[in-house]
Amino acid sequence: MRPLPHRLSGHRRDRVVLPARRLRRSVQVRVGPMRILAALCLSMLLALSARAGPLIFAAASTARALDAAIAESGMDVTVSYGASGAIARQIEQGAPADLFLSANPKWMAHLVDLGLVAADTVEPLLSNTLVLIAPSGAGALMPTAAALAARLEDEQFVMADFTTAPVGRYGHAALTSLGLWQAVAPSYVPTRNTIATVAAVARGEAALGLVYASDALGVDGVEVVYDIPHESHPAILYLVAPVAGGTEPEQAAALLAFLKADAARTVFAGFGFRPAEGAP
Q1: Is the overall model pTM greater than 0.85, yes or no?
Q2: Helix (H) or strand (E) holding 177
């Protein structure tokens, strides 16, 4: 399912809504499901084409921080959030994006290979770190295999599926390099994403979880019990680039300039993100 876009100007949000029509009782209209789907898609495309300001397709994990940064900018911006792969596919299929913010370098490279993004325009915008979280009040955790095994006795360890999710791949690499994977593997239950991981820990369904630091910041019901060293896994980079054929290139450039400025970086830091190494 494609993510529904919303426009931000400060905190205003617009929803795409099909026009309601009054039906006469004497007329019965039968509409097949494919026609309904086509009408929905057409309505969304018309709404996007009629938007004011640039349209950015962004990784869902940046939503809270990016919303706040755009509000700080005062610009009129439309944002469509989703998994990096899903929104990259939408751009591939012709969605009218002006900027693409990806949490997974693989999908930025995919659009570069297709000629939809110029390689020399791709730049790192943000970075992140990994943490282990536990239900609030669980107490500090020593980062040893014995301590992890003891904490997880008859309990679950949750993390996004490392065969499909970037945070899971980073987490698996980190725990493996630290010699801790074997201690958590017997208790490991994969989740769809970090949102599901945080929720499981907050509800007490899991004793430990691994997430991005930004996903755990300010969330009720969980506490960070271990900051995972960034040297233990590949660098976590969020890449951004203009999309070829975007309809608002000048406004997109102005938005990107703001997102790289100190004011936006302060906002991002408040949500647990860090400047990417090598970012201008």
Answers
A1: no
A2: helix 166-177
